[in-house]
Amino acid sequence: MAEVNAALSNPRADIAALDALERTLFSLRYAIDEIGSLGPVIDPPKATDERGEALAELERARVEALCDPAVGDVLERLAAIPELLSETQRAQIRVLARDRDALVRIPAEEQAAFSRLTCEAEDVWRRAKSVGDWEAFAPYLDRIVEARLRMAAAKDPGRDPYDVWLDEYEPGCDAAFYDRFFSQVKDCVVPLLADCMASRSKPGRACVEGRFDEGRQWELARDLVALEGVDEKALWLGRTEHPFTGGPSTGFVLIASHAYEDDVLSNVFSMLHEGGHALYEQGVDPAYRFTSLRGGTSMGMHEAQSRFFENLVGRSEAFAPVLLETLARRFPGQFGRVTPRQLYLAENCAEPGLVRTEADELTYPLHILVRYEIERLLFSGEAAAADVPRLWAEKYRAYLGVEVPDHTRGALQDTHWAGGDFGYFPTYALGSAYGAQLRHAMVADGVDFDGACEAGELAAIRAWLGEKIWRWGRSKDSAKLIQDACGEPFSPAYYTDYLTEKFSAIYRLGA
Amino acid sequence: MAEVNAALSNPRADIAALDALERTLFSLRYAIDEIGSLGPVIDPPKATDERGEALAELERARVEALCDPAVGDVLERLAAIPELLSETQRAQIRVLARDRDALVRIPAEEQAAFSRLTCEAEDVWRRAKSVGDWEAFAPYLDRIVEARLRMAAAKDPGRDPYDVWLDEYEPGCDAAFYDRFFSQVKDCVVPLLADCMASRSKPGRACVEGRFDEGRQWELARDLVALEGVDEKALWLGRTEHPFTGGPSTGFVLIASHAYEDDVLSNVFSMLHEGGHALYEQGVDPAYRFTSLRGGTSMGMHEAQSRFFENLVGRSEAFAPVLLETLARRFPGQFGRVTPRQLYLAENCAEPGLVRTEADELTYPLHILVRYEIERLLFSGEAAAADVPRLWAEKYRAYLGVEVPDHTRGALQDTHWAGGDFGYFPTYALGSAYGAQLRHAMVADGVDFDGACEAGELAAIRAWLGEKIWRWGRSKDSAKLIQDACGEPFSPAYYTDYLTEKFSAIYRLGA
Description:
By secondary structure, chain A is mainly alpha-helical. Chain A has helices at residues 2-6, 11-42, 48-67, 69-79, 87-104, 108-131, 134-155, 161-169, 175-198, 214-228, 264-283, 299-313, 320-330, 332-335, 340-347, 364-380, 388-400, 425-444, 449-455, 459-468, 478-486, 493-506; strands at 235-239, 244-249, 252-257. In chain A, strands 1-3-2 form a three-stranded mixed β-sheet, with helices on both faces.
């Protein structure tokens, strides 16, 4: 940081220091993203220890670079002279100051202790999940919540601790916001699902059942991302158990996914989902590529893009003929006699289940609702780890109508809490709601959404999302993106209306 | 580097600063190795620009960490109190001081520009090679040589620039040393090859010809590294045009290689070669893994290990039955009726050819000789990129008796110059000579070399090399390793004697 120290109150030197900081952060993030996301997918088993050390050191260097007191001074001085800065520079300073604030008030020892705790907890969780042993994991959950409460107090002593973390994953959102949002979702989805379950007109999945060669599923995976419009010249595709998308750079997005021989749709919708993340990463303005503005703006907005392509496009009736044709090209024997309508119904069976990652579009937000409500109770002190299994069972019974038979398919199913990620789950549901509102605005803007899906030519959809959302990277927060794209603030009604309309038709409710 | 600044003349603080520096360097090297070696193999095409920027920045950070004046002070103070340090710490300080000296005089901007230039040049070279377009690559070669001349002048203004780079790849060696070495090699190999070509008793390759399924060749590749004793739990195996071995860490060695359907031996000897590099990387004392002592001590010593397993083991008559059995397991139809003697002769046909990486053991050093002589001319200013194809053709005609039909199989065949690696090629020939001397010493020490090869159980060979060479990592230079392992200084006579004896017998010279 010699460049930073050299800058006194000379705007030109401060701007040079900003650029130097951005290059340093870019290279460290690039290394952390590539090693951290590719590593677990491709590295040999003995690579783990040294990879962990390398990642911890690179992360330490990133925090050190950002928390350098001289950086705080540079950012403050530059923030005071907005008239001398470009719009991009003003956004960089805002985002960098926020990233810095998120780190600078937490004592290094606290952060280090938290890393060690979650590293150990993830290990304990993995074993506990495999045998369904909640008691083994519970003490860790309590300790992690305590640590998160302390860290939130350090970051922002005047604020509700859960709000601190909700804001970190989705800037601008707090529990009051999510309470309203989830209340609307609950009021719509719980009775809607009950009606669907009571309907005598239920779609079936028989037409998509069978065994599907894994090698051909990987060819299909490539067809699907190509159909979505992901730039394959900037894509690496690999295999893993839990699908994810990573992005060391705008020109290098990686998707890791799975293929199960007995479930071709799992691969199909995982790929469409991850492809949506990839489109967002690839669509950020290349001018941002070496700055902190690169990448998606928040977890919720990222999830909005992935669920947009998974559900609003992928599971739409308009897209069904194109998807069927794509499936039939790789599996002519199995899809040659399926109709688009049959495929559409098979993709949209609403089935109350136990496992979030296997949930359909209608039940999905209820899985999130359960987690959100439990996180609220843990952070308000109204519940402790020991209460979680009971709460989990009660809420799954109340909202989804299912009985939880074991902790493996219950409160131990997700890795997020073991990693300390409280406040992350709600963004999953929020993303779906963002997406529904974006689709509405897109159509109001004249995009022929159904026509694009029917033609299997999504360029008009990509162009609209690219212009309104993707290109902005982190330079605008979600609330501003929604406002600018839709001409109004976020409203969950588009989402609940969409679900009501779609599932009432499929299940012939009120017919 | 707060830890470094904090250290005044307190040995304990200096040692802590040394440890902190080593952790920082470890993490940056890890990132540079992984991104730099895996990247070109697996990244999508559009990743190149940003990868280049990230690598340049990480390299800049590495240089900055090492060149920090406070680091120079710490190393000097510690070097003055050897009695308070462990043997490992003394070696760290020696190696770090040398690494620092190699960089401290090159301006950071020059180094960063060089990284960007070679990143771009490697891309241009790849395309140029595929279409044989020397003119596309030539301007890059000139620019890279100019950059290397400038950098050498900055590093050591009083020294011949080519010597500067020869010393960097093989500490202690200069052009005068290599001139003597290559003169002995040339005096032996050029007439020996001519005699072989004139012999009426020529081994044939018919028994290894045919088409070999690529998928099975990759299974064979795994068999071969397992047979060598490479730890597969610390190995990543991938595909590339130009085989290489990389090693982000002791627990993560990567080999990229190729398989040609019409040439099974190409894959076999590439794998045995790269496996030798992998054994060296994996064999370094684990106590060094987070220090600058990790990895092989020099290019020449690394090549000694790879050529040891490729040639001294892999192409020996003693190993032929085991290799044949391994081949026949994957290709029973094609190798079921071949005899070990036939295989031995087929793998040892001395065939003057165009491509270095496809060369046999006898002609190989002549390919290196051509490159060494051309590098000498480029660095003395007696030749420029435009002259290289003519020089290449003349020297291949003179030493190998072959006509060069195109640049793809001519001066564009290797990636080294595109990466700026001048002074690297000579180490390939030197490594073969080290290997021959090591084998002699090993046998004199009582290792049953032929017996180990015949049994296909190379543990005794690995144990000797592991103890004498591998475990020491960078803590000893090549000259010291050879002296300690062999009880005498390096001598090329073991190599020329070995070649003379082996090929005289195969070609029945003087019989």
